[in-house]
Amino acid sequence: MRSLCCCGKDACRIGRTQSHTPGISGSSRRGATTLWSSRPFLSCLTEPTDAMSYDALKNIHSLAAYIWLGSLFGSLVFTTVASRRTPAGLITGATAIVRFSTRVGLPAAVVLLISGIWMIGTGNGPKGGLWLTIGFVAWLVAAVVGSALMHPAARKMRNAAAGSDEAIGYARRIALVGGAEIIMIVIGIWAMGARPGS
Asked: Residue 86's closest CA among 179, 163, 156?
């Protein structure tokens, strides 16, 4: 919380020195002071600028979570549809999952973590509790563990013979990891909304 003057620093100085203006009687000065203090838009107020920053961070935080979830969900739906047409479609879909996860999902996950830590640092958000632990564990599993499992499988899939059973097996593993990431993100969003233990 920072003390701000809605009318600027000069107005603050005027307000403080007005009662000392020569030639004004005591009753007039008291009346002017009362009028001044009764008009909040003319006085120096403590405005919740940190709260405004918190709201902006909360919007960024939520947007990053939905972008991460949307990129994975969309690519997983594409993979499911493509795999029903041909077995090779599963490989195409798995490639899309890895691409969206790397180019869209992972940057969104980083923004999600940074904005979450920043919100905690403002001191205006809800205090830590079980929900914060659940959210962080969900992020950790989805982002770190998910990437650690997905990218090695993607490399092996690319090195395998095109359309082979080995490549299809790695593609299936990528799809499973993508589905698990979606579940963890949903759990994290639920924890942030329900805030159990807070």
From this structure: 163
